[in-house]
Every structure is written in C-alpha cells, then in structure tokens.
Amino acid sequence: MAAVDEMTLGDIVTDNAVRFPDVIAYRHGHRTVTHAQLRYRAVQLVSAMAAAGVKHQDPIAVLSRNSIEFGELNAATQLSGIIMATVNFRLSPSEMDDALRRVTPSIVFCADEFMPLIADLVAGMPSEAMLVAIGGQAPPGITGYERFIEGGPSGVPEYAARPDDIAYLLFTSGTTGASKCCILGQREMRRVVFTMNNEMRCGSADLGLINMPMFHFGALAIVGGLHTRGATVVLQQQFDAADAVRLIADERITVLHLAPVMLRELLDEASDRLAVESVRTVVYSAAPMTTAILRRARLPCCRTRVSSTFTGRRKSLSLDCPENCTSSTNPTPPSG
C-alpha cells in the first residue's frame, strides 16, 4: 500500500470510480457525469492529448466558465501528470496573451464564447497551440471537444501522475500589479483537498454548489474537498441568487461556498427558509463576514471555526449546523 505522501490527486479520481461509481461527480443543468464516467472520460482525454503530442508534465491551458468539461480536464490532468494552467476569463486581452505566452501550452481548451479572442492570441504566439472548442459548434478549422475526446481510447492512462509533479499553474487576478503565476504540486494540492474535506466534513452523500470560477484556487480546493470522499459537485457558471436557491431546494444541497456578499444576496432571495433547509455547511472567503449576515443566516447552533485552509491571506469560516438543532444562542463571528 502506497504511503499517503506517495499518492496523487489522480488516486482520488480512481478511488471514487471504484468506491462510488454511480454517484454523480458533476451536475450542470440537465447534464451529469458519475464518478465512474468521470474517470473513463478523463482517461480518454489523456489518450487524446498524448496522441496530439502532449507529454507528461507538459502544460495545457483551459479558458472556460464552470462546466463538466472543465471538471473532466481537471480529472485528466490529475491522473496523468499533464499540467493544467487555468486562464482567468476576467483578464484583459493583453493579460490573457501574457499568461498564454508564459505557459506556452500544447493545447488550449477554450469555451466558444472566448474562442474569437483566443484564436487571435494563439495565432500570434511563437509556438502556435492546438485549439479545442468547449461547447457550441466548433468554428471551421478548430476541433470540437467531443470530437477530440472520441479520438482517445479508454483503459489505462498513457501517463501516470507522480507526487512530485506540478499539478496546476494558476494566475492571480493582478489587482496589485502584474498577474503572477502560482505553481501548485500534486502532493501539496492533495494535502489541501483532504484538509478541505476534513473542514467541511463531507462524504459521498453530500452535494456542494460551486459558483466560484473553477480557474480559481478556492473553487479547485472546494471541488477537490468534495470529491475526496466521493461527493457531488453541482455547478453554476456564475452566481445567480434565485437560481442558487432553486438548486439548493431541488438538489438538496448540503455545502455552499460563497463570499459574504453572495450569502447576503442568497438570504434576500430565500424568503421561504425551508427552501434552504438542506444546507449544513457554509464555507466563505474573500471578505469579512459581518455579525448581521451571520445572524440572518440563522445558524444559532453552529460551531464556528476559522481556518486558513485554502489561502494564507484570506480567512475562511465553516458554519456547521448539527441535525435537529434547537439552540437559540446567536453565533459570534471570530476576530482576525
């Protein structure tokens, strides 16, 4: 049996396919992929990328809003040791160009809405990358995602990730200067997602709503934390309070990841508190939580824990509500 530090993120993908094959890994709208299907398609992606000339520890880039395809690419790179570089779609064209030139990806997987811009940027790079279109109809001369993935057989991945491999290249938002490229390793990120799973106390029966962009470290950490024990990730492409309340009610969401301003909007929208009664854990980040929002959340029974689990600079707070709690003591937000 491999020592814990000798395992990779890819071992989580394989473990879930064996232990929770029929549990949904990702849900987006009416589309779903189970944990067994996620690994199958991830292996196909690895094979297709290898056939296109991508080697172990070569970078590929992803520019997309939250999608099942993003999740499949994440699983493929976790299994194979191919590096995933995520490009922030909120960056300016010049910043995107800078990110792509620094990464020099072999393939750019790009959502159709961003394809005109990215096609122009890639054409101007010294070493032109292959373009694969996610969603919609692929433009002439560009391979569509499903056509690309069909070119790769499943079975055993062409490459296997190693603990010392680089897993991700993530770019900061550039609010205090030029965007910086952050390097995250397989071993280090595996520790992060297990820490998140422990903080959220989630298992295969849990469903987490993810509307933070998956290009961001926080979303990848929460997704990884949910998947560490076979939970389900329900995706929104961007936060919409009314849609979030509907999804919580319809899917019986148990875990939320929100910034405080998003939680406030969700509370404003949830006039019927029974619509969100399934939620037992809220993880927040990005800004301080006010006492007023905490009290409006009506989690008086909560054990309030502060941890810097997926960022050293910003704090995160888990509010865990025990089942059938009737305590009436108001929570007090932590200092710091």
TrEMBL record:
Molecular-function GO terms, alphabetical: CoA-ligase activity
A Pfam family of this chain: AMP-binding
Keywords: Ligase
Domain AMP-dependent synthetase/ligase as annotated: residue spans: 15-306
Superkingdom of origin: Bacteria
The name this protein goes by in its record: Acyl-CoA synthetase (AMP-forming)/AMP-acid ligase II
Organism encoding this protein: Mycobacterium numidiamassiliense
Organism phylogeny: Bacteria, Bacillati, Actinomycetota, Actinomycetes, Mycobacteriales
